[in-house]
Prior knowledge:
Elements: H1 10-27, H2 32-43, H3 49-58, H4 65-73
Helix pairs in contact: 1-2, 1-3
Amino acid sequence: MKRVEIKADTAWRKSRLAARLLIRKESRPLRPREQALARQLSRDSEVTNRLIQQALYFLGVGPRKHAFDQKLVGGRN
Length: 77
């Protein structure tokens, strides 16, 4: 019997990557290459806020979501 691997669709993969960049941004400044990738993903129509939010929960940010958001946005106020 041939095994069929389930692949995540591209929008979900890109959103997980964007979420990982947000997690990195929380802990340290992004490197220029990471900033360029984040900029590219922010312009991508497949990467939606909802998918990024789901990816953040998938990656384990869920219980501390409010504190995570405050830390990322805190520098702009």
